[in-house]
C-alpha cells in the first residue's frame, strides 16, 4: 500500500470497526451503522460483479471470494446519513482500481469456494472489463430482479468513467502499463465480439462527453496502442498468427469512433511509394505470408526441399492463410459498414494502394526494381480479400446485381479527394490504362488541349462497380505476377536439372560444381514451393470459384458493353 494515496487507512481500522454479528452491546451498534442504508441484494450484486463487499464482516465466511476496502468503511462511517448506495459504489470502484495488491484485503470464504482471478486482479483495465462482462450477464439473466434498469445504467456509467480515466490519465495508475492491458483483454477471449464492441463504444462515448475535443482525445489514447499492435504484427508469421492483435483490429473497425481513427492512422501520403502501405497496421497484416517482404529476401520455410517432408508444413501454411483471409475480410467489411466517411477513407486506401503498386505489372520491371512496391504475399492476400468482398455478386452470371456494374468507371477521372467522394471513384488513374481498342483520345494525348470524349455515367458510381474493378486490378498485380514468376522458376529448374544430369553423366564435373548446382536448385525449389503454396491457397476451391466467377463476369460485362454500344 506504500504507493497508494489512501494508505493511511490500515487493516486495523476494519478490525476495530467490523465485529461478529454474535457480539452484543457496542459492537452491534457499530454493525448497524455499517449496514445502515445498504440493501442486501445490491450488496450481493456488488460482491458478485466487483468482488468487494459493502458490508465487511471479518469473521464471516463469504459465499464468493471478496475483498474489503478500508476507504469504503470510512465513507460508510462518516457519510451514513447522506450517502447513498450508488455514491458509495462509485467511490468504491475507483478505490478498488487503485489498490496495488488487492490480495492482502481478502476476506474469509467457505472451504468449497474457488478463487476468482478477478477478485485479486491488479491491472485496472482487465479488472474493469471483467466487471463489465459480469454486469452485462447479470442484467441479461435478470439475476437481481429488484435492481432496476436505471440502477444498471448508472453502474455501467461508473465502469466507463473509470476506464476513461485510466486511458486518459495512465500515470494515476503507475506502474501499470495501460496500453498493454487494452491488448491483454483480448488474450483471454473472455467475451463475445458484441460485448467487446459494446465496451469500447460505451467508453468512447464517455470520453466524448468528458472532453471538449473528444475525437482528438480518442486519437491520442489509441494511436500508441495501434503502434504497439503493428509492431507485434510485423514480428508474426503465417504459422503463428497474431490472433489477439487481429481481434482488436476487428473490434476497432466495428466501432465508429475507432474505425475512423484506425483508417486515419493507416494514411499514406500521395508522394510515398507503394511499399509504404506495408508500414501501416492494416498493411502489416496483408504482408503476413511467409514470402519475403523485399526482393531477394530470405524465405522462412522449405529451406531444404530435397530433404524435408513438406506435407504438414503445407497444411499449416494453407490453414494460416485461409484464417488470415477470413479475418481480414471481416475487418474491411466492418470498415465499409462503419459509416459514409469511414467507407470513403477505406476505399481510398484500397484504391491508392492498388494505384501506387501498378508498377508491379510493367514489362520492364525486374526483380530488384520491385523494392518500391508491396510484396507478392501482400498482393496475393489483397486479391483474396477483394475476391471475398466480390463473392456475393460474382457467384453466378444470373445475379441481377451484375447489372449494376458500370463499364464507364474505367473512363472516369477525378482530380482531388472531394471529386473522388462525390463521384464514388477511388481507383485512380484507371482511365490512363491502355484500352483494348484504340480511341481518339490515345492518338491525341500529346496535345495538351485534347478532350476525353469517352462516355462516363452521371452521378455516383456504386460500391459493386468499384469493388469489381478493384478486384480485377488486384488480380493483375497479384495473381498474374506470381503465376508468371512460378512459370519462370519452373523453366529455370528444368534447365538446372538438365545441367545437373549432364554433369553427372559426363563425369568431368567436380564435387564443388555439383554442390553449387544442387544448392541453386534447392534455392529455386524453395521459391517455387512457397510461391506455389501461397498461390494455391489464393486459388483454393472456394477462391478459385471466385476467380473463375470474376473472369466470367468480366467477359459477360465486356460482351454486354459491346452489344449495348452496337
From TrEMBL:
Residues 282-535 form the Ubiquitin conjugation factor E4 core domain. It catalyses: S-ubiquitinyl-[E2 ubiquitin-conjugating enzyme]-L-cysteine + [acceptor protein]-L-lysine = [E2 ubiquitin-conjugating enzyme]-L-cysteine + N(6)-ubiquitinyl-[acceptor protein]-L-lysine. Pathway: Protein modification; protein ubiquitination. GO terms for biological process: ERAD pathway; protein polyubiquitination; ubiquitin-dependent protein catabolic process. GO terms for molecular function: ubiquitin-ubiquitin ligase activity. Its EC number is 2.3.2.27. Residues 479-506 form a coiled coil. The keyword Cytoplasm does not apply. One of its GO terms (cellular component) is cytoplasm. It comes from the Eukaryota. It is an enzyme of class 2 (transferase). Keywords: Coiled coil, Transferase, Ubl conjugation pathway. The keyword Transferase applies. This is RING-type E3 ubiquitin transferase. The gene is UBE4A_1.
Amino acid at each position: 500500500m506504500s504507493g497508494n494515496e489512501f494508505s493511511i487507512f490500515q487493516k486495523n481500522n476494519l478490525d476495530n470497526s467490523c465485529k461478529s454479528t454474535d457480539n452484543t452491546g457496542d459492537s452491534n451498534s457499530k454493525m448497524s451503522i455499517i449496514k445502515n442504508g445498504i440493501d442486501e441484494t445490491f450488496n450481493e450484486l456488488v460482491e458478485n460483479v466487483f468482488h468487494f463487499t459493502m458490508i465487511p464482516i471479518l469473521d464471516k465466511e463469504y459465499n464468493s471470494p471478496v475483498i474489503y476496502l478500508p476507504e469504503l468503511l470510512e465513507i460508510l462511517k462518516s457519510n451514513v446519513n447522506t450517502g447513498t448506495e450508488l455514491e458509495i459504489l462509485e467511490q468504491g470502484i475507483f478505490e478498488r482500481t487503485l489498490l496495488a495488491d488487492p490480495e492482502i484485503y481478502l476476506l474469509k470464504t467457505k472451504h468449497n469456494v474457488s478463487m476468482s482471478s478477478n477478485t485479486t486482479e491488479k491491472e485496472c483495465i482487465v479488472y474493469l472489463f471483467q466487471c463489465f462482462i459480469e454486469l452485462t450477464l447479470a442484467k441479461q439473466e435478470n439475476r437481481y430482479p429488484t435492481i432496476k434498469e436505471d440502477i444498471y445504467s448508472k453502474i455501467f456509467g461508473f465502469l466507463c468513467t473509470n476506464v476513461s480515466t485510466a486511458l486518459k490519465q495512465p500515470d494515476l495508475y503507475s506502474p501499470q502499463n495501460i496500453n498493454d492491458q487494452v491488448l491483454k483483454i483480448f488474450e483471454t477471449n473472455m467475451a463475445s465480439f458484441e460485448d467487446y464492441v459494446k465496451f469500447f463504444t460505451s467508453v468512447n462515448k464517455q470520453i466524448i462527453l468528458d472532453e471538449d475535443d473528444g475525437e482528438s482525445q480518442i486519437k491520442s489514447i489509441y494511436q500508441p496502442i495501434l503502434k504497439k499492435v503493428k509492431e507485434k504484427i510485423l514480428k508474426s508469421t503465417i504459422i503463428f498468427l497474431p490472433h489477439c492483435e487481429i481481434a482488436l483490429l476487428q473490434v476497432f473497425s466495428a466501432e465508429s469512433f475507432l474505425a475512423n481513427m484506425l483508417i486515419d492512422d493507416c494514411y499514406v501520403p500521395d508522394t510515398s511509394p507503394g511499399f509504404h502501405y506495408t508500414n501501416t497496421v492494416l498493411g502489416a497484416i496483408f504482408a503476413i505470408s511467409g514470402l519475403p517482404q523485399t526482393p531477394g529476401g530470405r524465405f522462412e520455410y522449405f529451406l531444404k526441399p530435397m530433404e524435408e517432408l513438406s506435407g504438414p508444413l503445407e497444411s499449416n501454411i494453407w490453414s494460416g492463410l485461409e484464417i488470415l483471409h477470413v479475418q481480414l475480410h471481416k475487418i474491411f467489411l466492418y470498415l465499409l459498414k462503419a459509416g459514409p466517411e469511414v467507407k470513403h477513407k477505406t476505399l481510398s486506401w484500397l484504391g491508392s494502394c492498388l494505384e501506387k503498386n501498378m508498377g508491379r505489372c510493367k514489362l520492364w520491371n525486374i526483380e530488384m526494381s520491385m523494392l518500391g512496391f508491396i510484396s507478392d504475399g501482400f498482393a496475393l492476400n489483397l486479391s483474396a480479400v477483394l475476391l471475398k468482398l466480390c463473392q456475393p455478386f460474382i457467384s453466378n452470371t444470373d445475379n441481377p446485381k451484375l447489372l449494376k456494374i458500370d463499364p464507364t468507371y474505367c473512363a472516369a477521372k477525378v482530380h482531388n479527394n472531394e471529386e473522388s467522394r462525390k463521384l464514388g471513384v477511388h481507383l485512380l488513374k484507371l482511365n490512363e490504362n491502355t484500352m483494348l481498342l484504340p480511341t481518339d483520345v490515345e492518338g491525341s494525348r500529346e496535345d495538351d488541349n485534347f478532350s476525353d470524349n469517352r462516355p462516363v455515367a452521371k452521378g455516383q458510381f456504386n460500391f459493386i462497380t468499384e469493388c469489381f474493378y478493384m478486384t480485377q486490378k488486384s488480380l493483375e498485380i497479384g495473381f498474374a505476377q506470381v503465376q508468371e514468376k512460378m512459370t519462370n522458376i519452373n523453366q529455370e529448374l528444368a534447365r538446372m536439372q538438365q545441367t545437373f544430369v549432364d554433369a553427372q553423366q559426363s563425369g568431368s564435373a567436380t564435387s564443388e560444381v555439383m554442390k553449387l548446382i544442387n544448392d541453386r536448385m534447392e534455392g529455386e525449389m524453395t521459391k517455387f514451393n512457397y510461391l506455389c503454396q501461397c498461390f494455391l491457397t489464393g486459388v483454393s476451391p472456394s477462391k478459385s470459384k471466385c476467380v473463375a466467377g470474376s473472369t466470367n463476369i468480366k467477359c459477360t460485362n465486356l460482351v454486354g458493353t459491346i452489344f449495348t454500344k452496337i
